[in-house]
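Recall that a protein's primary structure is simply its ordered list of amino acids. Everything else, from secondary elements to tertiary packing, is in principle encoded there. The following example makes that idea concrete.
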Amino acid sequence: MQTIKAQSVTLIGAPLEEGSGRQGASMGPKALRIAGVGRVLAELGHDVDDAGDLRVFPAEDLPDHANAHNLKVVGAFTRAIEAGVYEIAASGRFPLILGGDHSLSMGSVSAMARHAAAIGRPLFVLWLDAHSDFNSTQTSPSGNIHGMPVSFVCGYAKLDGILPADRPFVDPKKVFQVGIRSVDAHERDEIAEHGVNVFDMRAIDEMGVAAIMKQILSEIKEANGLLHVSLDVDFLDPDIAPGVGTTVPGGATLREAHLVMEMLSDSGLVSSLDIVELNPFLDDRGKSARILVELTASLFGRRIFDRPTRAA
C-alpha cells in the first residue's frame, strides 16, 4: 500500500466573483470548506493551515476599463493573492487557493512565477478547463476578466498597473491546457501564435487522458520544473458538476478527472493548486463542491481503494 508523503498545505480563500460577470462564485471558498477540504487533507496526514479569506478594497489607482469589467476589484484581489501565495510558497508550504472565479489565477500564477524565478526553476501551468482563457482587452467579446488570466500571466493581456511590469512571466510553451472545448476565434489565433499546448476533448477521446498526462509530466520532470495546477469546475461535464456559471457539455468524466489527479500525485511535481469557478448558487445540494474536494484528495494521495462509500 502506497504511503502518502505528508505536505504542509495552506488554504487561502479568494471570494472573487467580479471577474466572471455574474454573482455566486464568491461563495465558493465557504462551500469548499463546508464540503470538508481541510478536514479531508488532514485525514490524509497533511499539515493543514487555513489562512481564511482575503478581503480587499477596490484599487483606486487602476483606471476604469470598458473592456475589462470591474478592473479595480479584480486588480486588488490579484495583488493580494499574488502577495499571499508568494509568501506561502516562499515559506516552503503548498498554496491551495479556494475560489472564486478564474481571474484569481492572475495572482496565484504570477506569485508562483515569481517564486520559481527566485529559486531558479521553470514554472509550468496545467490548466484544466473548458476554456482557454487567453483573451485580452483587445480580443475579449465580453470584457469579463476571468477569460484573460492565461494571457495575463504570459504577458499578453495588457492590464497595466496591476502588478509590476518587470515581473516574471510564464512561457506560453510551458502552459498545458487539458479539456478545452470552447475557444473564441481570436483566442484560437493567439494560442497558435504563442505556442500554448492545447489538448482538447477530442485529444482526450483519441489519445486517452493517461497518455496526455504522461507526455506533460515527462516534459516537466525533464526540465526540473515547478507545476501550478488550475482546476476549473467546468473541466468536468456539467452533468457531473453543475455548480458553475459557464457550462459547456461534453467535459471530462469523473474517472478521467480522478486519473489526472492521481497521476499528478504520483509525479510529486505539483507545487500549488487553484480550485476555481465553483458557484454554489447553481449547484445541486453541494454536489460540485464535494466532487472538487474528492479530486483534491486524489491530488494529495488518496487512491481508489481508499474512497469512502456514501449513502445514496
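The chain has a mean pLDDT of 95. The longest strand covers residues 8-14.
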